[in-house]
Amino acid sequence: MTTATAPTTTATAECRDADLLDERKKQVHRAGQGPVDMACNRESLAGAVSQRACVFCGSRVVLYPIADALHLVHGPIGCAAYTWDIRGALSSGPELHRLSFSTDLQEKDVIFGGEKKLAAALDELIDLHQPKAAFVYSTCIVGLIGDDLGAVCRKMSEKKGIPVIPVQSEGFKGNKREGYLAACKAMFQLVGTAPTDSVSPLSVNILGDFNLAGEIWIVRGYLERMGIQVVANITGDGRVDDIRRCHGAALNLVQCSGSTLDLARMMKEKYGTPHLRVSYLGIEDMADSLYAVAEHFESVDPGIVERTRDLVREELAALMPRLRDIRRDLSGKRAAIYVGGSFKAFSLIKAFRHIGMNVVLVGSQTGTQEEYQELETVCDPGTVIIDDANPLELSHYVRELDVDVFVGGVKERPIAHKLGVGFCDHNHERKIALAGFEGMYNFAREVHASVMSPVWRFVPRRSKRAAAPSGADA
Predict the structure, then answer these.
(1) Which of 3, 60, 170, 292 could be a cystine partner for 143, CB 3.0 to 4.6 Å?
(2) Residues 266, 267, 273, CA angle at the centre, nearest 5°?
(3) What is the DSSP track for 304-361?
(4) Are 156 and 123 in contact (CB under 8 A)?
(5) What pLDDT was estimated at residue 257?
(6) Same domain, yes or no, for 32 and 64?
(7) pLDDT for res 341
(8) Helix 342-354, helix 283-297: angle, nearest 10
(9) Range(s) of the domain holding residue 166
(10) Segment (H or E) for 20
């Protein structure tokens, strides 16, 4: 076996070049160089300035898009500011989620406790905004001083007549993935508290999509054309009443498995609701997801498979001619991917292949050993796979692999800009829908515009490629 720590491997040589700390070397692997034996889902290494966020942030990104709920951060103002409007999650109605509320704990509150301050804040905010429910997020300082969020929330729920739900998301409890679990536990308190009389036998919940740039509306449109009712969006463009009756749906569709898979498992255990892992990014994954849903409901509606085939044919007939010119320009260019959940990376690798590009670096914040093993099977030999990277590591590999475009989120954008590399925002703040067949074209067009911009001719590190005809505009 050739591991990331063996002194004779290429991977180790590159790790040494990157000045990786010893504790980090097991979290880097090169595809094709021995079995995947990555140490992942670890606590982020102190001093390494990980791209990964904390438990509190993980819970906020999941629950934040529930648009008619009140979201109150019980802690210092910095925690609320850090996660204010953290996702570009659009709403078709209420926008209470766009506001950032905090109890703004001060030194006196740390000494004497913040429960009275929390109760007063809830009392005022619920009367002022009339939300359908309230989520109260615990932060590190609250966990340290011992405020009883549960007791305060129960009293306010009885007083106001709405669910007031504590989110046990103290940042020091672990990593971002623990925040996903805290969010799912909070949401599960709503599930099963409303009647399901109006729910169709052909019905689904959409889990793990946050309606960035309106993507959930694209997916809902496909499902509705297939004849399927969407009961609840969890959580993009989400509504409290829909979540309360979502246990009546016949199937859960789980995208970005790291964020809402726990909720799907809870619903499976208590209500028997089956779930499918799906992806709406790229041509194959979008089509495969729709076909999987159709096959699940074929016994209930025999015509659903043919309707789905017609839908996919129609969409591909419009899409494929639009990709040809883009593919001709991008053929052979190199891409780097760093995303929150590794499940997204599978779809992105396939999407890049459709436009002729090679993925040479792929990583995630919250991937598991099993996901990385599966990821290696779709990577080209030599592709660097990295878990919980820090900026120095990402910068090193982007330079070493001579990347043309970097796909990431807000924290990766400065890395690309400083290194003179095209950037495609795939995470929280993007304004372009990348889901579905329509999103595939948007993705290809954005990558093309970034990679082919003539500005890269003036980047010093690209001078060595200037003479090559295929890279003249890269």
Answers:
(1) 170
(2) 140
(3) HHHHHHHHHHHHHHHHHHHHHHHHHHHTT-EEEEEESSHHHHHHHHHHHHHTT-EEEE
(4) yes
(5) 66
(6) no
(7) 75
(8) 120
(9) 55-188
(10) none
Cβ 88 vs Cβ 431: under 8 Å:
yes
Residue 233 lies in a domain: no
pLDDT of residue 5: 37
d(CA 353, CA 356): 5
Between the CA of residue 240 and those of 191, 203, 338, what are the distances in Å?
Answer: 9, 18, 32
Q: Do 85 and 178 fall into the same domain?
A: yes
- Tell whether 454 and 373 lie within a shared domain: yes
Q: Alpha-carbon distance 357 to 317, whole Å?
A: 22
Question: How buried is 211 (Cβ within 10 angstroms: 0-12 exposed, 13-18 middle, 19+ buried)?
Answer: buried
Q: How many CB atoms lie within 10 A of CB 313?
A: 11
Note whether 374 and 448 are same-domain residues: yes
Residue 436 lies in a domain: yes
Q: Indicate whether 470 and 388 sit together in one domain.
A: yes
**What secondary structure letter does DSSP report for 43?**
P
Total residues found in the chain within this entry: 474
Judge residue 229's burial from the number of C-beta atoms within 10 Å of its C-beta, 0-12 exposed, 13-18 middle, 19 or more buried. middle
62 and 180 fall within a common domain: yes
CB-count burial class (<10 Å; 0-12, 13-18, 19+) for 283: buried
> Domain with 118 in it: what CATH number?
3.40.50.1980
From CA 159, how far away is CA 214, in angstroms rounded?
Answer: 36
> Which 3 state secondary structure label does DSSP give 132?
coil
3-state secondary structure of 295: helix
How many folded domains does the chain comprise?
Answer: 2
Domain-ending residue, one of 141, 169, 188: 188
271 domain-assigned = no
Place of tokens 């009140």: 70
Looking at residue 368, what is its pLDDT? 83
CA pair distance 40, 193, nearest whole angstrom: 37
Question: Other C-beta atoms within 10 Å of 35: how many?
Answer: 11
Whether residue 47 is contained in a domain is answered as: no
Last residue within a domain, chosen from 135, 170, 188: 188
Say whether both 387 and 360 belong to one domain.
yes
Handedness of CA 182, 183, 186, 188 (dihedral sign): negative
Write the single-letter amino acid at 235.
T
Give yes or no: residues 107 and 35 share one domain.
no
pLDDT at 172 (0 to 100): 86
User: Which positions of the chain have pLDDT values less than 50?
Assistant: 1-18, 471-474
Position of tokens 């850090």?
82
How many Å apart are CA 199 and CA 239, to the nearest integer? 16
